[in-house]
Write a structure and sequence with these properties.
- By secondary structure, this protein is of the alpha+beta class.
- The protein is built from 5 helices and 7 strands, in the order βαααβββαβαββ.
- The longest helix has 18 residues.
- The protein has a 7-stranded mixed sheet with strand order 1-2-3-4-5-7-6, with helices on both faces.
- Helix 1 crosses helix 3.
Amino acid sequence: GPNVSVELKMKLYEVQDRSQPLLDTLLEIWEQSVRATHLFLSDAEVNAIRAYVPQALKSVEHLIVAETEKPIGFMGIQNRRLEMLFLAPEERGKGLGKQLLQHGIETYGIVELTVNEQNPQAVGFYEHMGFETYKRTELDEESNPHPLLYMKRVR
C-alpha cells in the first residue's frame, strides 16, 4: 500500500486528574531527563531528589503534560513561576521544550524560574527564550554545591 507517514501531533493539556499511573509516568520522565542532563548530580543525589518529586507533582498549582501517543514531557507552574520542565531524553532537540515554555508564558504568564548553572544547555535555552539571570546562589535547595541561577523574563 501507499507509504503513509504519520505526523504525530503533540497535545498540551493541564492535568485535572492527577492519577497515580500518570504521576508514575511523569516521575519516570523526570528521572530519565535528569540522568540525561544533570550530569553533575551523583546517583545518590538523584535518588534523594527523586523522593520529593511525587509530592511536587501533586502539589504544584498547574501541571501541564505534553503527549503524542503517550506523555513525553511536562511542566509545573506556581504563581507565574516555572517550577519544573522536563522532557523524555529521546524527545529533546525537537522544539518541544520551546512549545511547552511558550504555552506556559502565554497561558500562565510565566515570568521567572530557577535553573542549575551546571546545566548549560538549559541555561542557554532559557536565555534564548527571553530570560535573564538576576541572582545566583552557590548552593542548591538541598544545600549541595550546585549553583542556581534565578532568571526573570525580560522580553
